[in-house]
Design a protein that fits this description.
12% strand
């Protein structure tokens, strides 16, 4: 009967070195350098190999509980609190709430394992794989900014449903701009874009969906040049606009909305603590974090000496024609369409 042993990579490499020492192909000093042990420990391993065979190299802690394992009472307490109050929370957020409100400090990975074993969380490896091929990130901060709006009950029953406009950097997934509005409209995108430009400068391009604010979807448009007011403003600012063909193409901002709908809604103060609806959170205080290995920002900085024209961002712009109404004077009127 042949015994089958399960060995780690370190244990198998030690076995190979010790067998070469037994056969005389390797000296003890060389074995010490390869294994990383002293001579006394190498001789101890050789004695165990000679007496008990390869099983002597297996770790004696295998199959036994860890010495650093938390008591069973801590696990029972943590899972009972999660099951009662945080059943719809992820392991990371639940671990933060346990430490903040209940004094139960458990690492997120430990809590993740407990929740998976108890059926409160599903491991990512067991979820359905995405059929869409991921798109490579841009190289620099500010090279491509994904923009979109998410209509959601952000304040649950504490306020009316509203829309959150978000600007997410494609290279770092950093939340660049957040703003609560009544609904997606061109003027709200003008205001949010203006705030972004004043804070971060001009990006190379915006990446959006095929909403009517960003592109003309009607093939039989009665008039116009095929460009929306928002697109005309970006054209005047030398900013490109790219419209995605599917929601999966702009998955970074979609995942950001999923995280915000999970964490932001659960972190907002309740009505008893003075919540006044979405109007009290027009611009949510951002806790942004960039990638440590990201490249320097690539932005087209705004000119400091010349302010940005308000006709581009923040006001509705229509072409004007000038006609002379009296000698030495002139008057303006909108171009007839």
């Amino acid at each position: 009967m042949v015994a089958v042993l399960s060995m780690s990579k370190q244990e198998f490499s030690r076995l190979e070195v010790l067998l070469r020492v037994q056969s005389g192909q390797l000296r003890i000093s060389d074995a010490c350098a390869l294994i990383g042990l002293q001579r006394r420990q190498v001789f101890r391993l050789l004695r165990g190999l000679k007496q008990d065979g390869a099983t002597s190299l297996l770790s004696k802690h295998r199959g036994k509980p860890s010495n650093h394992r938390l008591p069973a009472e801590v696990r029972t307490l943590a899972l009972s609190i999660v099951r009662e109050r945080y059943a719809d929370f992820g392991p990371t957020l639940a671990a933060e709430k346990l430490a903040e409100h209940h004094g139960c400090s458990v690492s997120r990975e430990t809590l993740r394992g407990w929740m998976i074993a108890d059926g409160l969380w599903r491991d990512r490896r067991h979820r359905l794989p995405s059929p869409h091929q991921p798109r490579r990130r841009r190289d620099c901060l500010g090279e491509l900014v994904q923009i979109d709006g998410s209509e959601h009950a952000w304040f649950e029953d504490r306020g009316a449903p509203c829309t959150l406009l978000a600007f997410v950097d494609d290279a770092t997934s950093r939340l660049m701009q957040l703003r609560f509005v009544t609904s997606e409209s061109a003027m709200d995108y003008f205001r949010t874009t203006r705030a972004y430009l004043e804070e971060h400068g001009k990006p190379v391009a915006f990446y959006s969906d095929q909403h009517g604010i960003f592109r003309v979807n009607s093939k039989d448009a009665a008039g116009g040049d095929g460009v929306t007011q928002f697109g005309r403003a970006l054209l005047a600012l030398n900013i490109d606009i790219i419209c995605a063909n599917s929601p999966q193409a702009k998955g970074r901002i979609e995942r950001a909305f999923g995280t915000l709908q999970d964490r932001m809604v659960k972190s907002l103060p309740s009505r008893k603590r003075g919540s006044c609806g979405w109007r009290g959170y027009r611009r949510w205080p951002r806790r942004t974090r960039g990638c440590p290995g990201s490249s320097p920002p690539t932005t087209r900085a705004l000119a400091v000496t010349r302010p940005m024209p308000r006709t581009c961002i923040g006001r509705w712009h229509e072409p004007m024609i000038w006609t002379r109404s009296w000698p030495g004077g002139r008057s303006a009127r909108s171009r007839a369409t």
